[in-house]
Amino acid sequence: MENNTKVTEFILVGFKSHPGLQLLLSVLFSAMYVVTVVGNACMILIIRMDSKLHTPMYFFLENLSILDICYSSVITPKAALTFLQGRRIISYNGCASQMFFFSLFGTTEAFFLAVMAYDRFTAICNPLLYQIIMKKRLCVLLVLGSYLSGCINCTIQTGFTFSLSFCGRKEINHFFCDVPAVMHAACSDTLVNEIVMLSVCGSIIVGTASVVFLSYGYIILTIVQMPSAESRHKAFSTCSSHMLAVSLFFGTVFFMYAQPGSTPSADKSNTISILYTIVIPMLNPFIYTLRNKEVKDALSRSL
User: Fold this and answer.
1) Tell me, what's the pLDDT at 1?
2) How far apart are CA 303 and CA 299, in angstroms?
3) Taking residues 184-213, what's their average pLDDT?
4) Which of 44, 97, 199, 252: CA 20 to 30 A from 107?
């Protein structure tokens, strides 16, 4: 740990380019962050204000909106300020904190999406038992369990990463303190850390994605067998937004954290990171609003 105590700061070198482009990135990141916060805050208000949306599905959706605000807040404001000021320094403790909370909220979101898929599976495949199974107590336990899983993963990832020795220029080839980028900045052997990251992150991503896609597989089979076209349309409309959101999230995250063998190039990883750290939290409220008749009706009643 002696080498670690000598390191007081890191240099974030992701998207280092012409000053004009830096200003554009700062404006773009700031605009997307404002849209993320406003969009998700509106979703929370709509769900809170309309009693018809006080159901398990919208309880999870409300918690997802809260999570997306926190998730984006860990990365986007710091990145926008870095691009604007050109000061790419982040303290050792600041980097560790950013990694901890990013891993916490990112892992929790994966579990949230799995929980929401299970909720839709129960509602469509077992409608008569839905109210009995999805009681408020179970919903609260599923949310708390998701956060607990996130805490376990972020503690493991942050602890292992910052047990490494850092020396030299201490440059992190990213715009935030992501686990793979910080590991590559270390001057000690990272083989154990890479195995741990692949094992833990890979099992979480594959496990939650399996729950999601198995649930939606059964849902699609059930919808196809429905006798009424109206019932099929209604069931599919409530699930299509979920399927779009999970496909975006798990596609990008799997590419970054669950691939054995070679890791993506720095430029590619920086670009893909923008998708799941900034773009997806911004798109979620629009995906769930524009493709959801109940939310649109609630919005009309509120207005």
Assistant:
1) 40
2) 6
3) 88
4) 44
12 pairs with which residues across the strands?
A: 172
Pure H helices in the chain: 2-6, 19-49, 56-85, 92-125, 130-133, 136-161, 179-184, 191-224, 229-257, 266-274, 280-290, 293-302
What CA–CA distance (Å, rounded) separates 90 from 187? 18
Q: CA 76, CA 33: separation in Å to the nearest integer?
A: 6
pLDDT digits (tens, 9 = 90+) for 130-142: 999 999 999 999 9
Task: Sheet with 171-172: list strands edge to edge.
Answer: 89-91, 9-12, 171-172
Let me know: does 102 contact 78? Beta carbons within 8 Å.
Answer: no
Q: Is residue 169 within 8 Å of residue 176, measured between CB atoms?
A: no
pTM as predicted:
0.87
Indicate if the pLDDT at residue 269 is higher than 80: no
Please tell me the distance from the alpha carbon of residue 248 to that of residue 115, in angstroms, as a whole number.
17
Cα(298)–Cα(30) distance, integer angstroms: 29
Please give the structure tokens belonging to residue 245: 């959101």
Is a pLDDT exceeding 60 seen at residue 261?
A: no
Question: Are 78 and 175 spatial neighbours (Cβ–Cβ below 8 Å)?
Answer: no
Report the C-alpha gap between 202 and 257 in whole angstroms. 7
Q: Taking 90 as the threshold, does the pLDDT of residue 161 lie above it?
A: yes
Instruction: Band the pLDDT of 11: cuts 50, 70, 90.
Output: confident
Contact 283, 248 (CB under 8 A): yes
How far CA 254 is from CA of 61, 161, 257, 270, in Å, comes to 23, 20, 5, 15
Q: How many CB atoms lie within 10 A of CB 240?
A: 14
